[in-house]
Amino acid sequence: MLLVVLVGFGGGTGAVLRYVVSGFASRWGDFPLGTLVVNVVGSTLLSIAVCLQPPTSIIYFFNSGLLGSFTTFSTFSYETFRLIEAGRWLLAISNLLLNLGLCVTGVFFGRWFVTRIIFGL
Amino acid sequence: MSAELKDVSMRSAVDYGLGTVILIAGGGFVGSVLRVLVSGVLSGVSGTLVVNVVGSFFLGFFMYSLGYGGFFSRDMRFFVAIGFCGSFTTFSTFALQSAGLGFTGFIVNVLLNVFCCLLAVFAGRASSILLLRRGVGWS
Question: Taking the model in full, what pTM does it have?
């Protein structure tokens, strides 16, 4: 029960942070930049957090709750769908490839950062 | 469709009022708890795929209903769209899981999530239009 509450508070915090951060970089022309920024930052931070192997309560609050909510797939697919619907194929495909490419790069960067920079291996 | 789709982007105005923040945090609380409960039943990539597809359907249905002037009030956008749907679905777990799958698994997982979620938004849009045509909640 306590773990569920930890996830919930992390999730509420993550959702508000996503709203604030994506508000700073909401759009670049018609490109949905805000969602890209939160997804890349959140994926990188999750990779770092997982590699650091924190205690269970931190995993529930920060990894599952906060970072899970800070990033979003539904807004990403909705915004991509709207671009396709409007016939803006170049923007839609750029949005798709940038989210996938940069988030996965962020995951690998996070792993590298923890093993090389923090643990010095 | 006789009604025109008003442009409803995810954020038409940036509003940092206390009420807005509470609505987003409340939606985020419920969405993240439900996501973790689903991933407790369906662990790994299948759980993430399910929450992403279901969340995308709900967001598509909600946003198009709002856009066509349907059943929802604009303030519900903060609770349902940004709070609940945003937190129920996740990109960070999806990216982390995909990166750990190896090349073939990576391609399959990425294509499944992207195609199923785009299809889910389309299905949400279609459901919204169908209900509005039947006169449910037409305003």
Answer: 0.92
